[in-house]
Amino acid sequence: MWHCQITAASPPTDCINVNPIPGLRAPFPGTRQRRQRSADFVRRLVAENTVTADQLIQPFFVIDGDEAQPVAAMPGVSRLGIDRLVDAAGQAHELGVPAIVLFPVTRDEAKTDDCAGAWDPEGLAPRAIRALKQAVPSLGVITDIALDPYSPHGHDGLMDEHGYITNDETVDALVRQALCHAEAGADVLGPSDMMDGRVGAIREALEAGEHRNVMIMSYAAKYASSFYGPFKEAVGAAAAFGKSNKKSYQMDPANSDEALHEVAADLQEGADLVMVKPGLPYLDIVRRVKETFAVPTFAYHVSGEYAMTKAASAAGWIDERAVVMESMLSFRRAGCDGVLTYYASDVARWLRDG
Ligand code: PBG
């Protein structure tokens, strides 16, 4: 890289070498960066990052019954009954998507203060896991470990009499939920709750229960973000959740160093894969995590990011496919091994069809 002082009157002769390897490249015009952009073949040869279906994880919302209920704030996404879920997951698998994430949508009657629905072996999540593993055994099934679908207030943990979301009591509940999902056949557990110590507790319980190869993809750096808005509609938590927020357990968007402590803790407790969430606004965090720990690192391109892209493309203001592919490349460039995105199957189809 060369920085040139260019004035209207004089040609760029006054160049300072800021090349990472001094003297490696000739000064202009010996080096013209545009040469390597001059034709498609060379652009392909010098591309530093690529996107393939192998890097995509498709989230699904699952409901009881056999309907497909569209999510208004997420055009193209529907809550699916188990049979439809199995079909859609099978299609994603055929397109080369390696894994999916499941989010159960629980009926209000089934929500209780102790969140016992979270570890009911006949609950929606374990039934969906069993159906998926039977129909598409080689598709990776990742589940969400958090109590929000089972609590009347929509928080990710158990609430005490002061309205505070408890930590240690919540971790005990999460362990029961994790074991329930592991027993149903989940391949990867995704604790998305941000309680302290939950990864270690889940890992210990998995070992004790002989679920040694069940992985933990921890939502290690999960921020208290407004980009989750449409998700709350999708899982029916919006009404219950009201004006409340999750700032006492999810991270402050102002913080970056703190994310490294969160990731370090989860890795030391036995997380196999780590995640940063949300996605595009937090790529600086992805980069720091990848550079610091060099472990499999994922990002969640969340519901609000999806909704914004859909809305702008529906208005004709952006080219949806081009913007999504550029977004995927940006995740890769930042250091992501993979991306959870509601666009996963679309991206896989676009890649296949060229
Ligand atoms: C809650 C959970 C949330 C998301 C995934 N799991 C919402 C929240 O933390 O409030 C958001 C995903 C998205 O917005 O796409 N356990």
Descriptive notes:
The structure is a single chain. With about 350 residues, the protein is of the alpha/beta class. It has helices at about 40-45, 80-95, 125-135, 170-185, 200-210, 230-235, 240, 255-270, 285-295, 305-315, 320-335, 345-354; strands at about 1-5, 15, 55-65, 70, 80, 100-105, 140-145, 190, 215-220, 275, 295-300, 340. The chain binds ligand PBG. Ligand PBG binds near residues 144, 156, 192, 231 and 302.
Summarize the topology:
Blueprint: E1 2-4, E2 15-17, H1 40-46, E3 56-63, E4 68-70, E5 78-81, H2 82-94, E6 99-104, H3 124-135, E7 140-145, H4 168-184, E8 188-191, H5 198-208, E9 215-222, H6 229-234, H7 238-241, H8 257-269, E10 273-277, H9 283-293, E11 297-301, H10 303-314, H11 320-334, E12 338-341, H12 344-353
Helix pairs in contact: 2-3, 3-4, 4-5, 5-8, 8-9
The structure holds ligand PBG.
Residues 144, 146, 148, 156, 192, 228, 231, 246, 302-303 line the site of ligand PBG.
